[in-house]
Amino acid sequence: MKYVRLSYDLAKSDPGWPGSYSIDIEPYTQIARGDVANQYKITLLNHFGSHMDGPKHFNEKGPRLAEMPLSTFIMEHPLLLDIPKSFSELVRVEDLLPYEDELQRADSLFIRSGFSKFRESDKIRYASEGVGISSQACQYIMDRCPNLNAIGMDWISLASYAHGEDGCLAHQYLLGMFHSHYICIIEDLNLDAIDPARLERIFALPLFIEQIDSAPVTVIAELNI
Fold first, then answer.
1. Burial environment of residue 83 by CB neighbours within 10 A (0 to 12, 13 to 18, 19 or more)
2. pTM over cut 0.85
3. What is the DSSP letter of 76?
4. pLDDT per position as a tens digit, 29-76
5. What is the mean pLDDT of the chain?
6. Distance (Å, whole) CA 51 – CA 49
7. Number of H helices, E strands in the chain
8. C-alpha–C-alpha distance, residues 185 and 53, integer Å
9. Number of other CB atoms surrounding residue 139 within 10 Å
10. Is it true that domain 2-6+46-223 has CATH number 3.50.30.50?
11. Calpha distance 113→96 (Å, rounded)
């Protein structure tokens, strides 16, 4: 087996949702200045970088990540789909229909659009003209794919900044506002190195912080090599 990390390091230079806070990192104690150990103070928006949206993010009746079963974060039957998209484009129902049988068997869906190539080369457009999943596609997933417990993507957010109202509705669908179940959302991943044919399992372990809806997440893929 081989293990590959799909989540990014958290860095001040990373792109964030336009207008939102990101991260500040500053020394708290430093050996170089006479302290006995190195420590850092981190101020972080919980929806920055690779992170997982819990149901509470858009659904006030939904659970926070720390309240959910641990089995939620281990994906035994992940499905990785290549669905190429460019600036401000949406993944739509017609993009998913050819994979309906596979989607119904999977417990998690990861979409590789190829848009992650802009994360370093054009950070502003990566954030402000990102890909999204349409609300109709999210409704279709909720109605037709009851075994899914997570959806991950190689762009900044389920919502495209260019389609804000539709993106809000998309979040509401997946996070359970209109259904008896919910699907967690894993945003801003690096899926470049994954061969779908060798993908065995995915572990997505967020920080479990009391009171917050969602959190940064470490995502690891297990590959059959």
1. middle
2. yes
3. S
4. 999 999 999 999 999 999 999 999 999 999 999 999 999 999 999 999
5. 97
6. 6
7. 6, 13
8. 5
9. 18
10. yes
11. 13
As a whole number of Å, the end-to-end CA separation of the chain is: 5
Q: List the chain domain ranges.
A: 2-6+46-223
Q: What is the dihedral of CA 154, 164, 18, 52, to 10 degrees?
A: -40
Q: What is the pLDDT of residues 127-179, one digit of tens each?
A: 999 999 999 999 999 999 999 999 999 999 999 999 999 999 999 999 999 99
Extract the tokens encoding 3.
Answer: 């293990």
Element housing 123 (H / E): helix 123-128
Instruction: Specify the amino acid at residue 54.
Output: G
The one-letter amino acid code at 169 reads: L
What confidence score (pLDDT) does residue 152 get?
A: 98
